[in-house]
């Protein structure tokens, strides 16, 4: 029995790092107005996901005009010319659909996961707000949703423990004109200043079919769906061309540090470096490195700070890549009675050891197994496939990269991990200490 168990785990370990690529078959075509359409048929369950992704996020905003992309996420559910306010949600919820939208720095997505026989309803609703939202926009709707977004900022950022940390980090890491220097939700004063004309102009520029991709994934026949797509989307006019923000070199000339007093129980340390953009080899290598540092109880940081020394409540490393830049971050929450200076010393000790001696191939293989599992699981649902196909189209120009995700990770060696880690993590960094109100002595203020 013992031999069988050992063999079983060996098979699992071996298969985890030799799994073949996922294989998502799809059709792709473009309407005359520039709308890209991606169709993925899967008849395993009677559900279909419809996603419209607009290649616009907070990075397309301008200084003093932040928060527009997220504000529009709310405005898109306030009714269009042929769909009354709240009717979009009402019609779909009646048939048991899952509906929502989300905004990030690079893209904005809207989706419906519906019983397959209601696919046409989802297409109609998405097309009406793509083509006919402006006539239904009113000052009253704008004022209402602006207040909703302001309240969301208060509830989810300003009045949440550690809620504004990422905002402070981005502002410190990027120059004021860089499109990643402001938060996706925007600043209060910019939301207040937004006029109805500003909002309409933003829509006309970025919410056009030539800046969008429509993906349908699930239980349907392409021969039936193509005429429906033509019926509902083909007449929407193409939008004007615009210039996208381009990647520019960003770096810190020297270490930065900041202490922020917040209504928190435990102090938290954030160490942040500039890193590569998404969908690059170096980003993949740093993703593996972050996994080695903090995924699981045997990871470098957890074993040292949480288990052995028992000074940290939690520790997490991440390679936060975006379309035109990235940030590598280590976040440590101290245990009661511990200071962030201790956390910083402990983190630096582990980092120094790793950058001196490197990582092992077994650590890399374990990380790759976890990453591959996440990739496979993300493509297990119709929503996951629709979202990934849209994202790969928007950010790489080729949705077939959904099937090549592991290519970026092939052949990663301990030497490559060491080389890339040294390249970025020996550069100047930003140190943010978030401490309880009146407890600045807990800050990591020394040694920078």
Question: How many structurally independent domains?
Answer: 2
Mean pLDDT comes to 93
The CATH architecture of the largest domain comes to: 2-Layer Sandwich
Sheet with most strands: 6 strands, mixed
CATH topology of the largest domain: Cytochrome Bc1 Complex, Chain A, domain 1
Over the alpha carbons, how many angstroms does the gyration radius reach? 24 Å
Distance between the termini: 56 Å
Shape: globular
- Helical percent range? 40-55%
Strand content: 15-25%
Unreliable segments of 5+ consecutive residues: 1-16
Full CATH superfamily name of the largest domain: Metalloenzyme, LuxS/M16 peptidase-like
Tell me the number of strands. 11
Strands side by side in the biggest sheet:
1-2-6-3-5-4
- Count of helix runs: 15
Q: In brief, what are we looking at here?
A:
With about 450 residues, this protein is α+β, with helices and mostly antiparallel strands. The protein has helices at about 1-20, 70-75, 85-95, 120-130, 140-160, 165-175, 190-195, 195-205, 220-235, 280-295, 300-310, 340-355, 360-380, 380-395, 415-425; strands at about 25-30, 35-40, 45-55, 100-105, 110-115, 210-220, 255-260, 270-275, 310-320, 325-335, 430-435. It folds into 2 domains: about 25-235, Metalloenzyme, LuxS/M16 peptidase-like (Cytochrome Bc1 Complex, Chain A, domain 1); about 255-440, Metalloenzyme, LuxS/M16 peptidase-like (Cytochrome Bc1 Complex, Chain A, domain 1).
